[in-house]
Amino acid sequence: MHDDVKRDNRKALPKFLLILLGSAVFGGVLGFLTGWMGYSAGDFVAEAADAFIGRVIPWLVPAVCLALLLAALWQYRRAKGLFAAWDGDAEEPIDRAEDRLNWVLLLSAVALVLDFFLLSASPYSQLPFGALTGVAVFLLIAAAVTLLQQRAVDLTRRMNPEKRGSVYDMHFQKKWLESCDEAERAQIGQASYRAYRVTGMACLVLWVVLIVLDFSFGIGILPSFVVLLLWGILQASYILECIRLGKRKS
Fold first, then answer.
1. What is the number of alpha carbons within 13 Å of residue 172 lying toward its C-beta?
2. What's the pLDDT tens digit per position in 181-200?
3. What is the DSSP string of 116-184?
């Protein structure tokens, strides 16, 4: 076993060092280019970003959210129709309906994230009553997302009477997980681990992007610190939960 450990390390080390070297070269070239860009085009980029956030975002984000919510509503109606036509025996219609309800949750979740971005950008809106209008639109979209997700969860419970929990319950996720069977919990665990890995990689990429932007346009270290803070919370919470679960098994 000890020899296997050494062999695996020797096999992986050259590739690891090559990746580090390539990253260093890429970072050096990128740093030079971004430094030149920040020196020569910094004011133009800053003005373009301000104009985009102030004039385009207040219109673009609500339009995208509306399209996402309409698509989610269409998926919900298709799922509801499949359940209404279900004969009570075949599993295929229910599987299709549940798949459509998953799309409802995905589309509405993306709309909610964009909605929060709209709220963050509303103070910079150059439209009349921009901030107040942004808050009003935020509340409307958030209410629509909540109602749509509530309908999706309720329909899922009707298709699976063993499920428990209400969207409006503060302990909804805990109650929902407790009502899942072993296969569903295993699926949730696999999806959670996948999300953990993707989020960790996303944090690393965002950190690099923010460092480059700070080097080019002087945006400050606060955005990078926030990303690293979230990355640290993700890593620590995952490892601590593994420790807790390990102790529970022993």
1. 10
2. 888 888 888 998 999 999 99
3. HHHHHHGGG--STTHHHHHHHHHHHHHHHHHHHHHHHHHHHHHH-TT----TTSTTHHHHHHHTS-HHH
